[in-house]
Amino acid sequence: MTEEINVIYQFWFEPEADTIERGLSLVETLVQQCHDFASSIDILCMTDHIGVFDKRFHLRIQFNVNAPQNSVLIKVAALFNFAAAHQLLFRNQFCLSK
Question: What is the rounded CA–CA span in Å between residue 98 and residue 93?
């Protein structure tokens, strides 16, 4: 199959932090690892945050997998392995249409 699949997987990482500055310092290495991982399997990584609520810093990490059907499952398996290893919280997936 050669059909292109385009899907976004959304994860969150929520370490304890009292301030945005502290939260950013706690996730700096993880954010770089996410971008490096995404680059290594040719997918897109997007990160942002919504600040600190209830003494937790809320980092959103989105990975966009846009590839032919025959390679998507390999990339998604690697992505979920990476997410599990880094204890990311799976929150949502979005299938994008052409």
Answer: 16
pTM of model > 0.90: yes
Q: Give the percent of the chain with pLDDT over 70.
A: 96
Residue 24 and residue 60 in contact, taking contact as beta carbons nearer than 8 Å: no
Separation of alpha carbons 53 and 19, rounded Å = 9
What is the Rg, in whole angstroms, of the alpha carbon atoms belonging to the chain? 14
Residue 17 DSSP SS3: coil
Sign of dihedral through CA atoms 90, 58, 79, 75?
positive
Classify domain 4-95 by CATH architecture.
2-Layer Sandwich (3.30)
Domain spans in the chain, listed from the N-terminal domain onward:
4-95
